[in-house]
């Protein structure tokens, strides 16, 4: 269920740390992306959109945010003492149907949610829960479950409604452009989760390529960042560290610092914000 997340490359050392290092309103980069402010729940709304060109590192960035202890630290400020539940899903167009569909999204989120809070199972699936209590273990094992999208939507909404008074929820969803269904429908799905008072207790971080359907929905409506505009220093550090692993180039960096510096900067400039380009180019050396 977490195969795609596990396949996403982990960030290079110190990469993306800038997202947590700028917290003062006077800092121009923090004003630009405002992500830490958003995590702390400071009146920026429940949805944050991360966009970027193909290969710019969006999936790696979402995994970094999902896993980083600083994310939870800031979410706890927002929650004001309530528990915070986080869950993630990574759409993947090359994966199985479960990895690119709304059914797969809902099953994954429900699995994460109910694994963490099994006491909410009865709220999510009341009829099934009643039936399971009335049959023995052998019958439970033999029971075949077939949930429709409507069933999963109802269960997920019921679980969230039951949990909301006692906890805050933050979802990290990567790759909306890799969703196989109606993109407007999946946008509406996430927006509807935040309607009314629920918007005070939920945060949803979404990522996608800058397709028109997502730009129209998010660019001027929610806080957002364009990843390739913020990763020059990350790519510079990654390129320099990788080149140091190559013995002849490491010798060049030591003996002719100016030529070495030009080589690094040229590689980063040519990448034009695409981490994947740099990684593939350096692999050829």
The major pleated sheet works out as:
5 strands, parallel
Overall tally of structural domains: 2
Structural class: alpha/beta
CATH homologous superfamily classification of the largest domain: P-loop containing nucleotide triphosphate hydrolases
How many distinct beta strands? 5
* Global mean pLDDT: 87
Through-space gap between termini: 36 Å
Proportion of β residues?
A: 5-15%
Encode the helix/strand succession as letters: HHHHEHHEHHHHHEHEHEHHHH
CATH class of the largest domain: Alpha Beta
Uncertain ranges: none
What's the arrangement of strands in the largest beta sheet? 2-3-4-1-5
- The backbone outline, from C-alpha atoms, is elongated
CATH third-level topology of the largest domain: Rossmann fold
By DSSP (H or I, 4+ residues per run), the number of helices equals 17
CATH architecture of the largest domain: 3-Layer(aba) Sandwich
Give the radius of gyration: 22 Å
Helicity, in percent?
40-55%
InterPro entries: NPHP3-like_N (IPR056884), P-loop_NTPase (IPR027417)
Pfam families: NPHP3_N
Protein name: Nephrocystin 3-like N-terminal domain-containing protein
Organism: Hypocrea atroviridis (strain ATCC 20476 / IMI 206040) (Trichoderma atroviride)
């Amino acid at each position: 269920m977490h195969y795609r997340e596990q396949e996403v490359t982990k960030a290079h050392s110190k990469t993306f740390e800038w997202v947590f290092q700028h917290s003062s309103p006077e800092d121009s980069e923090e004003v630009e992306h405002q992500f830490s402010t958003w995590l702390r729940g400071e009146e920026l709304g429940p949805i944050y959109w991360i966009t970027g060109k193909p290969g710019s590192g969006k999936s790696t960035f979402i995994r970094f945010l999902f896993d980083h202890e600083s994310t939870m630290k800031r979410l706890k400020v927002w929650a004001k003492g309530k528990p915070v539940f986080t869950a993630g899903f990574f759409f993947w167009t090359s994966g199985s149907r479960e990895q690119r569909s709304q059914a797969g999204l809902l099953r994954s989120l429900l699995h994460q949610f109910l694994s963490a809070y099994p006491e909410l199972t009865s709220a999510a699936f009341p009829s099934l829960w009643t039936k399971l209590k009335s049959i023995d273990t052998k019958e439970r094992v033999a029971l075949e479950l077939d949930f429709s999208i409507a069933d999963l939507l109802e269960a997920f909404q019921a679980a969230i409604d039951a949990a909301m008074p006692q906890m805050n929820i933050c979802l990290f969803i990567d790759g909306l452009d890799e969703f196989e269904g109606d993109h407007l429908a999946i946008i509406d799905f996430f927006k509807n989760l935040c309607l009314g008072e629920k918007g005070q207790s939920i945060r949803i971080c979404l990522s996608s390529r800058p397709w028109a359907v997502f730009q129209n929905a998010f660019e001027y409506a929610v806080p957002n960042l364009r990843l390739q505009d913020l990763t020059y220093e990350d790519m510079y550090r990654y390129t320099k560290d990788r080149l140091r692993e190559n013995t002849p180039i490491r010798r060049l960096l030591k003996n002719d610092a100016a030529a070495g510096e030009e080589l690094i900067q040229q590689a980063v400039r040519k990448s034009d914000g695409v981490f994947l380009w740099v990684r593939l180019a350096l692999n050829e050396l």
